């Protein structure tokens, strides 16, 4: 009996542990508070591995560009072999660094409270890195060629196999962009903690959006220049077999390749240079998709940057008011000066009628110009802040009220005939007043309080 009771108790304890394990994982997960110092240390370690990974990638990319020039021009076969071995060894080191980088990222996320079994994207990212890194020029593929028939030149052409691998090297640009994002201020450990507070993810896309918002021109034009350089390099490789046969539409010139990329990505298409290989057309399809996105975003960024911000708009309105006010003073000074000249000429000089009429016309033109400038100044005042709009509406109602009081006094002092006229005119003004109040209802409370005593005396 004791043995059976112990077995039952043991089975119950095991079941409780099994049921409690998911809740323990949840408590150790995102709901628990992380130690900022520890997670910052692991994030810095992850950044160091990522930077080392980027440096070795730069070394491999530079050597690949050099070896492609030697292959394309068929120069220095012995040196090519040495460089190819160095590229291969750097790719192996990059694969090892990529694995260490992945483990460092997983350790950092584990310290943040993420469940280790859920690191699916990190594993997929490492697999893609492995495929890109292993696709590099290799020393034992130097003499291999891929033949194909091109119907445009009506001849058999060939790629070196290492040329195709050089084409894949351009995909490493993804690693450089990723390193730039990781080392930005929008992809730090603190950024991840703040994003978790607001239920959003500090992903690569979040960092790209932040860069576009704060540095729109730099981000967009850097993307466009990178697009030209990378796809120009790809296009040169794709069209290299035809350059060995004919010099017509020669894409062995890097400037011709970049010019074709610029014309294609901006949808101009002059037709002076065009692609003649299937591989080149395949690459240019991606260029059209990416280039349209970059160019269209450039137009949107320029349009948004030319729109005044609210603060800038207030500054423009204020400068416009000051300019109009200065212009009103100048016109008023001209009117006074012309009047003084007219008075002095009429009193002390023998002025002809034509000169006097000319001065009168000049005064009239200046008066009209002053009136128009004053209207513009009043219109500019109405474009100010809400407090200025309230003040303007308040002053308008005050003027209407003064007119009504003046008409009331004239009614009391006038005759019966005048009273009938003024009663009619007063009723029109009262209707205008109520219409103005109806259309400017937000001023009613302030004005009713301010004129409380005057309204009591009126009624």
Notable traits:
459 residues; disordered C terminus; elongated; 77% helix; single chain; mainly alpha; 18 helices; two-stranded antiparallel ribbon
Commentary on this structure:
The protein has 459 residues and is mainly α. It is 77% helix and 3% strand. It has 18 helices and two strands. A hairpin with a 4-residue loop joins strand 1 (145-150) and strand 2 (155-160). Helix 2 runs antiparallel to helix 5 (161-169), helix 2 (36-73) runs antiparallel to helix 6 (173-182) and helix 5 (161-169) packs antiparallel against helix 9 (216-238). The longest helix is centred in the last third of the chain and has 39 residues, at 310-348. Residues 18-32 and 449-459 have low confidence and may be disordered.
Topology:
Blueprint: H1 2-27, H2 36-73, H3 77-111, H4 120-134, E1 145-150, E2 155-160, H5 161-169, H6 173-182, H7 189-197, H8 204-214, H9 216-238, H10 240-243, H11 254-265, H12 278-305, H13 310-348, H14 353-381, H15 386-413, H16 416-439, H17 444-450, H18 452-458
Antiparallel strand pairs: 1-2
Helix pairs in contact: 2-3, 2-5, 2-6, 3-4, 5-9, 8-9, 9-11, 9-12, 13-14, 15-16
Strand-pairing-aware structural class = mainly alpha
Strand order of the largest sheet: 1-2
Largest sheet: 2 strands, antiparallel
Uncertain runs: 18-32, 449-459
Whole-number mean pLDDT: 78
Shape: elongated
Provide a quick synopsis of the model.
The chain has a two-stranded antiparallel ribbon with strand order 1-2. Helix 2 runs antiparallel to helix 6 (173-182) and helix 8 packs across helix 9 (216-238). It is built from 18 helices and two strands.
């Amino acid at each position: 009996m004791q043995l059976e009771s112990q077995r039952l108790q043991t089975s119950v304890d095991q079941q409780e542990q099994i049921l409690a394990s998911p809740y323990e994982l949840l408590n150790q997960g995102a709901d628990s508070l992380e130690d900022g110092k520890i997670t910052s240390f692991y994030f810095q370690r992850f950044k160091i591995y990522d930077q080392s990974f980027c440096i070795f990638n730069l070394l491999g990319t530079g050597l690949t560009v050099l070896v492609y020039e030697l292959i394309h021009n068929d120069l220095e076969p012995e040196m090519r072999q040495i460089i190819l071995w160095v590229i291969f060894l750097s790719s192996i080191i990059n694969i090892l660094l990529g694995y260490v980088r992945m483990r460092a990222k997983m350790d950092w996320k584990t310290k943040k409270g993420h469940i280790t079994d859920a690191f699916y994207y990190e594993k997929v990212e490492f697999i893609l890195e492995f495929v890109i890194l292993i696709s590099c020029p290799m020393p034992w593929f130097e003499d291999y060629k891929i033949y194909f028939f091109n119907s445009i030149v009506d001849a058999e052409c060939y790629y070196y196999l290492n040329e195709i691998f050089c084409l894949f090297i351009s995909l490493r640009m993804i690693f450089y962009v990723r390193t730039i994002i990781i080392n930005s201020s929008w992809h730090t450990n603190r950024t991840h903690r703040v994003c978790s507070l607001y239920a959003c993810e500090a992903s690569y896309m979040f960092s790209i959006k932040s860069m576009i918002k704060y540095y729109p021109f730099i981000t967009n034009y850097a993307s466009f220049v990178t697009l030209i350089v990378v796809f120009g390099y790809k296009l040169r490789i794709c069209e290299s077999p035809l350059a060995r046969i004919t010099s017509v539409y020669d894409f062995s010139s890097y400037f011709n390749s970049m010019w074709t990329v610029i014309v294609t990505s901006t949808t101009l298409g002059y037709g002076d240079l065009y692609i003649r290989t299937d591989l080149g057309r395949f690459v240019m399809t991606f260029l059209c998709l990416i280039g349209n996105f970059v160019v269209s975003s450039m137009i949107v960024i320029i349009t948004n940057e030319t729109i005044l911000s609210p603060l800038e708009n207030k500054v423009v309105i204020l400068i416009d008011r000051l300019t109009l006010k200065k212009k009103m003073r100048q016109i008023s000074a001209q009117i006074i000066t012309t009047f003084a000249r007219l008075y002095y000429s009429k009193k002390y000089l023998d002025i002809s009628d034509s000169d006097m009429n000319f001065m009168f016309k000049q005064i009239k033109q200046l008066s009209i110009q002053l009136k128009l400038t004053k209207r513009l100044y009043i219109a500019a005042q109405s474009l100010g802040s809400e407090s200025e709009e309230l003040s303007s509406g308040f002053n308008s109602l005050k003027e209407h009220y003064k007119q009504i009081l003046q008409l009331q006094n004239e009614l009391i002092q006038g005759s019966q005939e005048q009273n009938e006229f003024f009663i009619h005119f007063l009723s029109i003004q009262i209707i205008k007043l109520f219409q103005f109040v109806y259309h400017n209802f937000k001023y009613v409370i302030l004005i009713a309080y301010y004129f409380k005593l005057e309204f009591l005396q009126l009624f």
